[in-house]
Amino acid sequence: MLRACLYLMFFVPWTLFCTFFAMLSTFIDRSGKTYHWLALIWSKGCLWAAGIRLIVTGTEHLPGDRPLIFMGNHQSYFDVAVLFQATTLPFTWLAKEELFRIPVFGHSIRAAGYIPIKRGNGRESLKSLNRAAELVRAGRSVAIFPEGTFTHDGNLLPFKRGGFILAEMSEVPIAPFSISGAIKINPPDNLFSLRPGVIKIRFSPVIEIDAATARHPTVLMERVRMAIAFGLEI
Length: 234
Hints:
Elements: H1 2-25, H2 33-49, E1 52-57, E2 69-72, H3 79-86, E3 92-96, H4 105-111, E4 115-117, H5 122-137, E5 142-144, H6 162-170, E6 174-180, H7 182-185, E7 197-203, H8 211-215, H9 217-231
Parallel strand pairs: 1-7, 2-5, 2-6, 3-4, 3-5
Antiparallel strand pairs: 6-7
């Protein structure tokens, strides 16, 4: 508990500091590159302060000449920082549309290339996914946790369909990644439990969107699930 409290004393001001300059940067650099650079600095500081050593494998499977949809498992609050540090390829996130309505912050994430997704109403949600697909086809890589929430035992939860519909619409390959060890460092059901240690992330070969997977979305979902599960170390 003491270690977790000390980490939070670092994390809160560090996050506010980086967020302030990230939002400020979008008024100067609308390409999102500075925003992403600050996200890299933020994530590196978070892992360092928590005493986390990151081991990355499989980056040779990531093509750098086309957009990708990163999909992986979700074990802890450190997963976002881990993915930022694991690849040099720039990417953004899908985010709830409501976040884009927040003054200043909403402007900053939109300028940084984050993609709004509307939840709830099926027709409106489909429209937002179609707009997101246009942005991805235009060259914007995005990251998604298809489980939608944390696992509490390390096992994969059922996947939500939104990310796979986006992949089918955009016809952009999926880059599966597997995070191992994060749940031991910071269990999602205990915010005040923090142990230094090693987190491993493994990238699997990309999964192309072909005619067969487009006709049968459950096939694509299962292929991604198997790739993520194969890369996990339990």
